[in-house]
Amino acid sequence: MDNKTLIDNLSRRLDVSRDTVVALIDGLAKTVGECGAELDSVAIPSFGTFEPRKRLERVALHPATGKRLLVPPKIVMTFKPSVSLKQKIRNGE
């Protein structure tokens, strides 16, 4: 499902305007990003948890040249689905 389809589906399901749905999704993305930058996790009941994880500095090889590159440390957000979301997916709901 692409972004436009998601917005249309949520707009119909919640009976709100597309602009409202876009604002809600943008607000959620910004909040999760800000919490991740502060190394805080975001838990959404019956959906899952977004958790920041630190990736350490590492040495990688350039695939074309074979040269060694130093990849700097970074923070990535991971998502762990809730048990209820996993069950809904398994049951096809």
Residue runs with pLDDT of under 50 for 5 or more positions: none
**Into which percent range does the helicity of residues fall?**
40-55%
Average pLDDT works out at 94
Please give the count of helices: 3
CATH superfamily: IHF-like DNA-binding proteins
Please provide a written account of the structure.
- The chain has helices at 3-14, 18-37, 83-91, and strands spanning 42-44, 48-55, 58-61, 68-71, 74-81.
- It has 93 residues and is of the alpha+beta class.
- The protein has a single domain (3-91), classed as IHF-like DNA-binding proteins (HU Protein, Chain A).
- The two termini are 16 Å apart.
- The mean pLDDT is 94.
- Keywords: DNA-binding.
Summarize it:
The protein has helices at residues 3-14, 18-37, 83-91, and strands spanning 42-44, 48-55, 58-61, 68-71, 74-81. The protein has 93 residues and is of the alpha+beta class. Helix 1 crosses helix 2 (18-37).
